[in-house]
Amino acid sequence: MEQIVQQIEAYKQEIAAFQPKNAEELEQYRIRFLGTKGLVKSLFGEMKNVPNEQKKEFGQVLNAFKVLAESRYEAFQQLKDEAAGATGQLDLTLPGEPHRLGTRHPISLVRNKAIRIFERLGFTIAEGPEIENDWHNFTALNLAENHPARDMQDTFYVHNNPDWLLRTHTSSVQVRAMEEGKLPIRIICPGRVYRNETISARAHCFFHQIEGLYIAENVSFADLKQTLYYFVQEFFGENFKVRFRPSFFPFTEPSAEMDISCLICGGEGCNVCKHTGWVEILGCGMVHPQVLENCGIDSGKYTGFAFGMGIERLTMLKYQIKDLRLFSENDARFLKQFQGTV
Q: What is the DSSP pairing of strand 124-125 with strand 185-194?
């Protein structure tokens, strides 16, 4: 054992005097002392020849030697890193890194398609702020302060008295367009909206809408129905059924909800259609006379219709997606399935 300890002391002096000039000398040092056949591993192999009463003392010596050899190597690691960096900068023959082409988000694909369909009917795009005041989001739309319908549109308030909030629908954009008084009005309002809802496969605290508004003289419910029939046939094709159900919205009268047979289960029943075979895709109706008056439009001369639909709902039906949460999880495995368009 004494002979081995003397060898270790000689190796320690060699390590202390080691001053590499380049990465090649540093690599030779690593192989000599720290490699699989290096001195450190060889010396640890001598442990079996040491008497049991001396193993503890010898083990401490070996561990100290190993730490010294490793720390000396790490002290000059910068030489190796600089050499690798310099090589990478000078080697101009290496092929360049390819640029990965992304794809459009499915929400964007569906929104753009819906916009193109309505543009063929003469609708133009109108946009507005996502942070709204109470008047444009609720009161002007015949939703008084204590109206029970506000409970269905519980949202996130950013300021009280006066109330400023994250808009619950893009109907606020319609109010702003009506207040301008430039008639007739034929607009669609795409955008993101917010509601305080429990996140699930069918609901989220934010989502996207497209709402439409047409105000002119002699506009009827028949105009509304034909507009929506045209849209769903252009968007989904013709292999489905359509139905209108009477409903209630404070800002339209009469009001209806439009359903189509579920394209995911073929009408058999699934979690998306709540096992009914039908999926509601939009709400609609004739603009309430009080809403027209609130916005300075003569309800005795002008009539109009409005509708609103969730883009996520359309996307789920078109691509047969069963969980709405996938749209906002940013999972590349999900997103790369959708083909981008220029």
A: parallel
